[in-house]
Structure formats: C-alpha cells, structure tokens
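Need a sequence for this fold. Nothing fancy.
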C-alpha cells in the first residue's frame, strides 16, 4: 500500500482501531510489591501485549504480511506512534529486539532467515539481544577478540561479551566476532545469529547499584553456529555493526512515541506543583530549559524518522538525538533531586525508590549505545565534516595489535 493512497477515512478508521486496542491492552505493568530485578515479570506482560498486538494486525506495521507484519505504510506507523505515545509503553523491553535486531534482519537477512525469524520476532514469541561490547572492546568495538572459526558447515565461536541487556530472557542474539585476524581490525569481523540456548553459551548477571540485574556477561565456549546463520556478507561485520548501531541510536534517541513530546518536563512540573515550589523562579527556568530541550529533541527525532521513510538504514544524524537524550537525562536527574529534596537520597521514602532508581539509571544513558564522546566524534566527523582524529592502528593487521588480552606478535 502506498502512503499517498491512504485516504482520510482509512486513517480515521485505523486510528480508532489503535485506540480501541490500546484502551483494552495498554493498562500498564501491575505490581505485587515484590522486586523484579531480572525483569522476568515485566517481560511476561510485554510478550502478552505484543502477541495480542500481532493478533490484532497492529504489530510490525510496515513489515510485509508474508513475514508476520501488518503490511501497512509509514503513514500508518506515524499515526500508531502518535497514539501509542499517549498510553503506557508496554513494549519498552523489546527496544533492542524490535528497534535493532528486527530492522537488521529485515534489511540484511536472507530470504530463508526472514522466513524463519521475522514473524516470531514481530509477534514477541521470540526475544532478541545484541552482543557487541567486550571487556577490552567497549567504545572501540572493532578491537573485539571473540573469534569465529569455520569448521565445515558450522562456525565455532569462543569469547566473551558484556553489558548484554536481557540476554537471560532472549531466545536469539546478534553477535559480531572476528573471522580474519590477518587484516586490519575493522575488516575481519562478521555478524551472526546465535541461539541463546546453544550448548556452550553461558549467561551471568551483572549486579547493578540500583538492585537490578538486567545486564549480563555472556561467555561462548566452542559454540557451534550453523553457516547459514551468517548475517550479511563474510568479513563485512563492521559495516553491519555500524548499521545496527545507527538503528540503536535512533531507537534510544527517538523512542516509541511520535510528535512533539516533553514528558519529563511535564512530570517534573507536576511534581513541583504538588510540592508547592513551582513559583521558585530559578527552578522554573531549569524546568523550561528541559521543556525546550525535549521539544527540540522531538523535532530532530521527527526529522530522523522522516529520513527513514525510504526504508534505508538511518544515518549518523541519529547520534544527535541519542546525545540529546543523555544530556536531557542528566539535567532531569539534577532537577529531580532538587525538587524531591532530602528524600532523593533516602531509598525507602514515599516514592518507593522511584526517584532514586531514575537518578542511578540516568548514568547509563551516556554509555549505552555509544558514549557521549563517541556520539560527538560521529557528529563532528560524519555530520559536520570535521577532520578525523589520528588513528595509529590504521592498516595494521589485528593480530599485530596490543588490544585487550592480546599481545602483538611482533
């Protein structure tokens, strides 16, 4: 269906379908008061919501019906986003699965891979994670040491990944591994699909300061991956990883909503009003700054989404929204603590730790999806056209580099 063939009546009918579904199913996450550090309960609710969405013909709106999508247009997706933004976000825990893995499978997967994986991903029957970072390869992901060696019809993978969100609840993962150490580090990487229940895959939780454990370390010991699970071309993994990171930054920076949004500012204004301090002139100026920044970020996000209408991988402009989101998050944290006062450092207060968790969680924003420094480098290099930093390892075979635990052979 072409966007310009959608009539006003069809869109009005679609909007009503969306609202009717969300009125019934987007009821938020029930709480029994018990901790859910591994997000097991949240994921169960999320999967139930997503499967109901698929049954209603509203999941994967722009993806073809043959692969489990709704087969609708970008216009329909825009309408869905604008309406969904008015309801509790029931699919936040599928941000990686749907915002990163799904578009990579759709754009770069073979026909067989799409037929095998897309429908279950879209419907939430399977959950996916992303495995890039390693203990010695964070911001410099190209220095990764996890290796994949060909053995007949399989690849044998050995290594370690870290900071893998929801790996313990994922059925599949997208992993990058070194397939040729004899070429420069960016050139010898490939991307694979791996079953998280494969023999030799071990997932260990990382305990966070806020009490959560949704991050993980993942260890691979002689893990066999079928040759057919190569995603994209052999040794083209760096370009693939770059494309996936672009999707990630768009997912983080633009969220699931549409239109102009200033939710954080609205929440802080409501809280300041409730506490009777909204007339403080300095506080009002800080709140207005957050309101303005969120509005500007929304406009940048809308532009980024518009540029994706052609169905292509998003460009480096996604780093602008990603960087803006972390800057806003930092300011929100500081203003929040100013509003809630001494209660902001007392874990068991009337908020049941809500403000405290938000403050601690805000710190990960400047790391996840690429640090703020990396985003600024990308914006300077690929958006503004500024000269690149000097690279001392350009053209050097990976095996000759001193990275992580590896010692150069020379």
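Here you go.
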């Amino acid at each position: 269906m072409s966007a310009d063939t959608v009539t006003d009546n069809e869109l009005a009918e679609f909007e009503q379908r969306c609202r009717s579904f969300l009125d019934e199913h987007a009821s938020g996450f029930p709480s029994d008061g018990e901790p859910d550090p591994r997000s097991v309960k949240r994921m169960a609710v999320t999967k139930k919501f997503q499967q109901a969405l698929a049954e209603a013909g509203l999941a994967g709106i722009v993806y073809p019906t043959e692969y489990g999508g709704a087969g609708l247009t970008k216009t329909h997706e825009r309408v869905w986003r604008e309406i969904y933004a008015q309801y509790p976000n029931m699919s936040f825990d599928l941000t990686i699965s749907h915002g990163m893995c799904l578009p990579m499978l759709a754009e770069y997967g073979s026909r067989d891979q799409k037929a095998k994986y897309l429908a279950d991903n879209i419907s939430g029957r399977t959950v996916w994670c992303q495995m890039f970072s390693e203990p010695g390869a964070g911001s410099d992901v190209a220095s990764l040491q996890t290796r994949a060696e060909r053995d007949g019809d399989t690849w044998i993978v050995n290594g370690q990944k870290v900071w893998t969100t929801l790996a313990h609840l994922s059925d599949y993962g997208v992993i990058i591994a070194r397939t040729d150490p004899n070429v420069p580090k960016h050139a010898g990487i490939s991307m694979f699909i791996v079953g998280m229940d494969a023999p030799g895959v071990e997932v260990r939780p990382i305990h966070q300061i806020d009490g959560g454990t949704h991050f993980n370390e993942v260890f691979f010991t002689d893990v066999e991956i079928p040759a057919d699970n190569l995603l994209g071309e052999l040794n083209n993994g760096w370009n693939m990883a770059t494309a996936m990171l672009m999707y990630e930054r768009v997912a983080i920076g633009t969220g699931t909503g549409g239109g102009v949004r200033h939710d954080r500012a609205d929440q802080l204004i409501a809280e300041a009003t409730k506490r009777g301090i909204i007339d403080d002139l300095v506080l009002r100026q800080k709140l207005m700054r957050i309101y303005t920044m969120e509005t500007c970020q929304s406009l940048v996000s809308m532009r980024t989404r518009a540029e994706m209408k052609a169905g292509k991988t998003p460009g480096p402009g996604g780093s602008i929204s990603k960087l803006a989101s972390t800057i806003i998050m930092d300011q929100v944290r500081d203003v929040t603590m100013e509003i809630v006062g001494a209660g902001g450092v007392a874990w068991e207060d009337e908020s049941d730790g809500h403000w405290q968790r938000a403050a601690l969680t805000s710190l990960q924003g400047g790391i996840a999806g690429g640090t703020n420094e990396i985003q600024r480098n990308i914006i300077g290099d690929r958006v503004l056209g500024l000269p690149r930093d000097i690279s001392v390892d350009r053209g050097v075979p990976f095996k000759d580099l001193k990275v992580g635990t590896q010692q150069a052979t020379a």
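For context: Residues 70 and 362 are 35 Å apart (CA to CA).
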